[in-house]
Structures are given as C-alpha cells and as structure tokens.
Amino acid sequence: MSKLPFDDEPPPAPKAAPAPVRTVPMVPKGLVPGASTPVAQARYEFSPKLAAGNPAGEGLTPLPTLPVAPVRQVLTVSELSATIRDALETKFQNVWVEGEISNARLWNTGHLYFTLKDSASQIKGVIFRGALRYLKFKPEDGLRVVARGKISVYDVKGEYQLICEHMEPQGFGPLQVAFEQLKKKLMAEGLFEMARKRPLPALPRRIGLVTSIDGAALRDMVRVLRRRYPNAHLVISPTRVQGEGAAGEVARALKRVARVSHVDVIIVARGGGSLEDLWAFNEEVVARAIAASPVPVISGVGHETDVTIADFVADLRAATPSAAAELVVRRKDEFFAHIDRICERLDAAMGNRLRRFESRLHALEARTGYAGFPGRLAFRGRHVSELASGLRHGVGQSIARRLRRHDLLRRSLDQFDPRHRLGAIRTRLVARDGQLAAAARRRFTAFHGRFGGLAARLGGLSPLAVLGRGYAVTWDAAHTRIIRDASTLRVGDNINVTLERGSLDATITRTHGPND
Questions:
Q1: 433-475 pLDDT, tens per residue?
Q2: Same domain membership, residue 95 and residue 47
Q3: Quick one: which of 81, 435, 446, 455 is 20 to 30 A from 132 by CA?
Q4: SS3 203
Q5: Helix (H, G, I), strand (E, B) or coil at 31
C-alpha cells in the first residue's frame, strides 16, 4: 500500500565509512520519543575512535544536522478510491441492514440493482445473479427487507454500495401498503373490469395529451404522432406529474381536456422514476378522473416494469409514453397491410370453403348409390321438361279461356256502363235546360206586361195620384182616422193635413156645414 505523507523513516547511514557510524537520536527537551513533527529531530554523530577511548562520551560536543524535508505523496483518484474500498471492505465485511426497497431493476445480465432506504437515508445495493436465484421471493419496490452483505465502492462513479448476499422480507413499506389498499378498493368497485374498457378509435380526430410541458415524454409522443399520423390534431393539457399536489393537477388536466369538443382519446403519460416519483398516478383522485372520462384513456406512465393504479383503471396500458403514441394511431402502411391481411384471410377462407365443398361432392360421387345417378337425373330432367311443357300448355289454354270470358264480360259491362247513360242524360238535360230557359223567358215577358198594366191601373187608383192633382188628406191629431165630415170636429181640435209632398198640422178655428 502506498505510504502516506510524513510517515518517512530516517535515511540509512552512508556505506562509504570503513566503520559503521552509530546514529543516536537525541530527543530535545519537551519532545516525546516517536512523536511526529513537521521538522525532523536533531541527530548527533559519534566517532568510533573517540567512542572507544571514552565509552561514556563525556566531554564530546554533539554535531547537529540539518532537518530533512518531508516527502509529499500525491495519490490518483483510482488509488484513493482503492484505498477507501479496502478500508470499507475491511471494516464492513458482514453487515445486516434493514430498509425499504426502491428503484428495483433486473438487468439482462441477471443482476438486481436497487436502493435500500429509510426515512432519512438511502444506500444503493446489488444482488448478483448467483445469490438472487437462491431467494425464495422476488424483491420489489416498497418491500421492507433485512439484507446481509458487505460494503464496497463502485470505482467508476465513486459510490459506495451494499453487495447483498442474503435478503429476508420484513413486510411492505407505507407507500406499497397504500398502493395495495387502493388497488383492492377500486377492484371491489369494478373499475378494473375488462367489461368497462372501451375500444380505441381507428383514426381519432383529436388526441388529448396530459403530461408535463417540459418533460421528454411530451417530445417523444409528439415525434411519434407526427411520424405516424401527420394530420393528428393534438390538444395538450399541461400539468405537474410529481411532487406534492401533482395528483390533483393531473385530475384537473384530465377533466379540462375531456371537455374539449371532438377529443376522441386521451393519453396520460410521464417518464420513468421511482415509486415516489410516480406516486401521483397512484392517487385515488387520478383513478376516479380516468374512470369518469367520457372518452377512452391510455396510460403511458413510467417504463415497462413500472405499474401504477392509473394503468389498471385506464382503458389501455402502454409500456412507455412512446408506446402509447404508437398504440393510439396506426401508420398508413399498417392500415394497408391490415386490409391486405383481411383480403388474404377472406380469399383463404373462400378457397378452403370451396375445397371442402369439392371434397364433399367427390365423396358423394364416389358412393355406390351414385353410380346410376346421372342417368336417373337425366330421366327425371326429361320428365320434368314434359311436365313443364304440359303445364305451360294447360296454363296457356286456361289463360286464353279466361281472356275470352273477360272480353265478353267487359262488352256486357259496357252496355250498362254509367258513363254512356250519363252522356245520354247529359244531352237530355242540356235540351231540357234550353226549353226551360225559353219558357221562363216567355212567361217572364208575359208576367212583365201584365205587371205593367196592373201597376198603371193601381197607380190610377192610388191616393197619391189624387194628391198629385192638388187634393189633400185630413187626419185626426192621432193620425188614426181620415176626417170625411166637418161636423165630427170641434173648434180647437188639432188635425193633420197630408199633401203630395209633406204634411201640415192645423187647429180648427171654425167649422162649416155642407150647405154653408
């Protein structure tokens, strides 16, 4: 192992002297032997000849030497990481750690990488394939476990991690328990039933996207949709997809985009992450919003191994946001290929049906009773032809008889046709109408002449005519009787005198007899 700074040993004595030189370190007052100081301790050299004559060394003056500068040792990053790894592996060779698993990922190499955490800290861990196959359960997110292993350092990233050799389950973490509880609740309500899953439209007019406006998931979906369906009309409802209050925002974004007219399908998506990052899609409010959506919803949350409550409630689950965009629309060549496959299946079905009928026909022809069937069929055909000819002849004769009877009945009916009788009656009516009009005119003329003579006679006898000649008619005051005798009146009576034009009221002042 490399030396650390200030751990230098004193340099060895030079080999040029014929006799060894003994170096005795003299500890100055105030220094503790073996103490590390930035300045090398003073050295005193003794000559071997003087030392032989004066073993005690009395009267000799020590010769101080110059201090030796410490050697600065520089470590590379790899050497430092290796030193730390050796120290950790030596100190923590067999430790037991309790915590909750998060971000568990099984790689194609067969190794399981995960994060072990508690309420305050976390540590990355790995179970290699050899140890993983001996576990009687599958480590997954949210599971509380007790793991045994050693601490090591991953030199490439300079991260320390737990190399797990054994693991025992200790129950689920709070998030996983909440997940399972909500899952059971919604399952009991029937929100996961396949009967309520709605089919996706073949070519949606508008596609709603509920995701983060700044996330890579939105860019991936837009790129896929533009490539597969350039005419797609996208309606984006931005929202936060993780953090406190993100679940409520996702639910409101779902309701907003569902109210847009002509939106045929909605994609709810975000990128991958830990259980905590995806927890907004495990909230009941998001599950209720997806279930209440009037149009089909596709869930494209996380990666293929990530499962959320939204995946169970949605009408269709996609492994990734890009996969959700691929599921919502098909490419043009896929439509053509689908039509070609249907045509091919139809042709194959018709061909198989025809072949089955041909096989059945050949099997019937191969039977023993079918040997004379063509002859019998020809005989029956000739008999049918004869019957058909006789039927046509008989039917023709019957029709001819019925036609003749029909003509006879029609001629008989024509004799009693009301139209002919109405024509004769109409002619008689016209003649009688002319006669009646002439007779009415004659009688009118006669009556008019007679009426004129009577009117002339009546006019001669009318009192009005007499009044026209200067005469007058005298009435009593009540105009109820005509006064013919003057003796019937007395002086002072009122009378009325009617003239040809108008009338007069008068009072009797004097009367005269016929002889006066």
A1: 999 999 999 999 999 999 988 888 887 777 777 777 777 888 8
A2: no
A3: 81
A4: coil
A5: coil
Task: Name the 3-class secondary structure at 171.
Answer: strand
Residue-wise burial string across 139-171, b where 16 or more C-beta atoms lie within 10 A, e elsewhere: bbbbbbbebebbbbbeeeeeebbbbbeebebee
Q: Kindly give the pairing relationship between strand 473-476 and strand 206-211.
A: unpaired
234 & 212 share domain: yes
Pairing of strands 206-211, 233-238: parallel
- Report which DSSP code applies to 174: H
Amino acid occupying residue 252: R
Domains in the chain, number: 4
Residue 306 and residue 209 in one domain: yes
Question: Model's pTM, two decimal places?
Answer: 0.41
> What gap in Å lies between CA 112 and CA 134, rounded to an integer?
13
Give the number of residues written for the chain. Answer: 516
**Residues contacting 507, CB < 8 A, separation 6+:** 492, 493, 494, 495
Joined together, the tokens standing for residue 121 give 């800290």
- Extract the tokens encoding 338: 């689908």
Helix (H) or strand (E) holding 317, with range, is strand 316-317
Q: 131 and 254 share a domain?
A: no
Distances (CA, A) of 356 to 345, 346, 360, 367: 16, 15, 6, 17
List the beta bridge partners of residue 146. 98, 168
Distant-in-sequence contacts of 431-434, Cβ < 8 A, 24+ apart: none
Which residues make beta-bridge pairs with 122?
117
Percentage with pLDDT > 70 across the chain? 84
Predicted confidence (pLDDT) per residue in 280-322, tens digit: 999 999 999 999 999 999 999 988 888 899 999 999 999 899 9
Rounded distance between C-alpha atoms, residue 444 and residue 449, angstroms: 9
Report the C-alpha gap between 375 and 379 in whole angstroms: 6
Q: How far apart are CA 392 and CA 394, in angstroms?
A: 6
